[in-house]
Write a structure and sequence with these properties.
Blueprint lengths: L2 H7 L5 E6 L2 H20 L5 H20 L3 E6 L2 E5 L5 H9 L5 E5 L3 E4 L5 E5 L5 E5 L7 H21 L1
Antiparallel strand pairs: 1-2, 2-3, 3-4, 5-6, 6-7
Helix pairs in contact: 2-3
């Protein structure tokens, strides 16, 4: 999903920053993925059935390497657009084909915070209940995590100045 699509689809305002997996993790993942692909191609068996399985494995490794570049959080003017983690096996395969359906907008005034391991975002419903959005932010850089906190703190400071 591109930033202009985020602005059109969600009412969070202009996208100020995009958060994705740490660059070092991306490069390590790409190197490991390419080494696995080379090893699979080198030791590919000659039987047709086994070749089909090896090609399916190669395709899934390339797909995983491509998914390393996905944006996990868009920081907007009025909230976060986060990519929630699929919770079931069936959800996981659906998310591969329809990844844009897994983005959720959470306004800053609803955000309570992130869990310690960056696996969940906790927010408040309009009726006072708490809901939890499962995330995959463990491999995001420390700088990007602090940017998310700063965006939240800046919004809260601006809100307190208005009151």
């Amino acid at each position: 999903m591109k930033p202009n699509e985020v602005v059109e689809r969600f009412g969070g305002g202009k996208v100020t920053y995009e958060v994705s997996t740490h660059k070092g993790i991306k490069w390590i993942g790409r190197v490991i993925g390419l080494l696995l692909c080379v090893a699979l191609i080198k030791w590919m068996p000659s039987e047709i059935g086994s070749k089909v399985l090896f090609y399916m494995l190669l395709f899934s490794i390339f797909w995983w390497m491509h998914s390393l570049d996905e944006v996990l959080v868009y920081i907007c003017e009025h909230g976060f657009v986060v990519k929630r983690r699929p919770t079931t096996f069936r959800d996981y395969f659906y998310s591969i084909l329809h990844s844009d359906d897994y983005y959720v907008y959470v306004p800053f005034d609803r955000v309570v915070g992130f869990t310690e391991q960056w696996k969940e975002l906790q927010a408040v419903t309009p009726h006072g209940g708490i809901y939890v959005i499962p995330l995959d932010l463990q491999l995001v850089s420390y700088v990007d995590k602090m940017r998310m906190y700063e965006a939240l703190q800046d919004y809260r400071e601006d809100k307190s100045k208005e009151n």
